[in-house]
Design brief:
single chain, about 300 residues, alpha+beta, nine-stranded mixed beta sheet, two-stranded antiparallel ribbon, 13 strands, elongated
């Protein structure tokens, strides 16, 4: 066979094979440098699936090796949103505030429980006088002192916390502790003006009142007087009038068992004197702190009886 015809037959065979390959969508990989590039049939590339039997059975992604790497993380959009753990609310973590203590006794209260309070405070040296049963400024100061010593709020009011603390530190008062017998003081030597007749003999120095009849002392009681700005007048007077349930029109304060001897000045019972003792003062009157004694004296004294006030 001639060489020319052989070459022509070979070219024709190659051309026919190439046409068949292109018709069936075959993929030819051409090596360029170190990377594999893909040559595909534009008409059939979109339907290629790995393992479908067409082509080589292995698909190479045109986007390059990075997009087909099995270790590559999914896109950020595909990650599930991270929800921060819910923090407990403030109200759930905070402990509820303890209830406020309730008031048991306060200034102005009177009665046996006040007397017990005073007796218990006296046991531990916070109340330095005989119980009176009246909650005045002296008792409030004693309660405040007790509260300060025990680290409690210094209110001067006896609340449930203060009361329970006091009960735990003291014993139940005896009858003698609740109502101690009054110390009997000897009657001072009376002024000579008191030696005759029926006389309320009042000594500023001994702070006492003696009820005397014809020089004999019938009873004696503690008294206090006016301050330096409202002094009790001294001299010899007479009981001008009496008022068992008197209330001062000037100061709007009770003046029970009042026996007036000099203008608006009178001998009368004082609840403030009973509560505060000598730390207070009157507006010029002669205050008596023992209500039973002044009540008895009121029944005995007559209008016109003598009153002697001296130092």
């Amino acid at each position: 066979m001639p060489r020319t015809s052989t070459r022509t037959g070979t070219r024709q065979s190659r051309t026919a094979a190439l046409r068949v390959a292109l018709a069936t969508g075959a993929v030819l990989a051409v090596t360029v440098g170190c990377s594999a590039q893909v040559v595909t049939d534009p008409a059939g590339a979109a339907d290629d699936k790995p393992g479908s039997g067409s082509g080589s059975g292995v698909r190479i992604d045109p986007a390059g090796p990075a997009s087909s790497s099995p270790s590559a993380e999914p896109a950020a959009a595909s990650k599930p949103p991270v929800t921060p753990s819910a923090k407990p609310s403030k109200s759930a973590t905070e402990k509820p505030a303890p209830p406020k203590p309730k008031t048991v006794l306060a200034s102005g209260a009177q009665g046996d429980q006040v007397r017990e309070l005073q007796a218990r405070l006296r046991q531990i040296a916070h109340f330095n006088r005989a119980p009176t049963g009246y909650y005045g400024s002296v008792t409030a100061t004693a309660v405040s002192s007790f509260q300060a010593k025990r680290g409690l709020p210094q209110t001067g009011t006896t609340d449930t916390v203060t009361w329970q603390k006091l009960l735990g530190m003291t014993k139940k008062p005896t009858a003698a502790q609740l109502r101690p017998p009054a110390a009997v003081k000897p009657a001072p030597k009376p002024d000579k003006r008191c030696m005759t007749g029926r006389v309320l003999c009042i000594s500023k120095n001994s702070r006492s009142l003696s009820w005397m009849i014809d020089g004999k002392v019938m009873s004696t009681m503690d008294v206090r007087f006016g301050s330096q700005y409202t002094p009790t007048r001294e001299g010899t007077f007479k009981v001008g009038w009496k008022s068992r349930h008197h209330v001062s029109t000037l100061y709007d304060t009770p003046m029970p068992y009042a026996m007036f001897f000099s203008g608006g000045q009178a001998v009368h019972y004082s609840a403030d004197f009973a509560a505060r003792g000598y730390s207070g003062a009157s507006h010029g009157c002669v205050n008596v702190r023992d209500e039973k004694k002044i009540a008895s004296l009121f029944d005995q004294v007559r209008t016109g009886d003598k009153v002697v006030v001296y130092k």
